Amino acid sequence: MSRRRSKARSRAVQAIYQWQMTGQEMAAIRDHFLAEHPMEGVDRDYFGELVCGVVQQVYALDDEITPFLDRDLQEVDPVERAILRLATFELLCRPGIPYRVVINEAVELAKSYGSEAGHRYVNGVLDRVAGKLRRMEVEGRGDPDP
Q1: Where are the beta strands (DSSP E) in 60-117?
Q2: Most CB within 10 Å of its CB: which of 18, 35, 61, 144?
Q3: How far apart are CA 27 and CA 29, in angstroms?
Q4: pLDDT value of residue 142
Q5: What's the CATH fold of domain 3-135?
Q6: Residues 6+ positions from 63 with CB-CB distance below 8 Å
Q7: How far apart are CA 113 and CA 79, in angstroms?
């Protein structure tokens, strides 16, 4: 995936984290990020799609993640919860992005922003989420949709 999308994911995790912690309207958070944070080299449109998509579908995303957790979702580190929601959104709603790219990007975000072993947790959960949401692709019986 492009560097611009990787940077969009990084900013999106920060915005989703802020939304989770403050409960502010995502539109206000998105606009603040676009105006106040360095956004050079960021796919701004994709950033907007990610943050708005996660918030609009948060209950469906949480329903996909929860069966694969070893604790209540609210007990998951908030940074890792934001990463799991973002990656699950991409697995569910962006079939053109290979599941391995989604998981790799999420693991890299967890290494950058999460707890010391958070990337292992994120990887384990997303492997199982991908196995459910992208079963054909994971089993090698189909490519992602264009």
Answers
A1: none
A2: 61
A3: 5
A4: 60
A5: N-utilizing Substance Protein B Homolog; Chain A (1.10.940)
A6: none
A7: 7
Number of H helices, E strands in the chain: 8, 0
User: CA 59 to CA 18: how far, in whole Å?
Assistant: 17
Lowest mean pLDDT among 1-5, 43-47, 57-61, 136-140: 1-5
Give residue 41's region: left, alpha or beta (phi > 0; psi -120 to 50).
Answer: left
Class of residue 20 by CB neighbours under 10 A (exposed 0-12, middle 13-18, buried 19+): middle
Domain ranges of the chain: 3-135
pLDDT above 70: residue 72: yes
% of the chain surpassing 70 pLDDT: 96
- Residues 16-71 pLDDT 10s: 999 999 999 999 999 999 999 888 999 999 999 999 999 999 999 999 999 999 99
Torsion of CA 26, 120, 1, 97, to 10 degrees: -80
Q: Which two tokens stand for residue 32?
A: 């603040």
Instruction: Give the CA distances from residue 136 to residues 19, 24, 95, 96, 145, in Å, rounded to whole numbers and listed in that order.
Output: 33, 38, 12, 14, 11
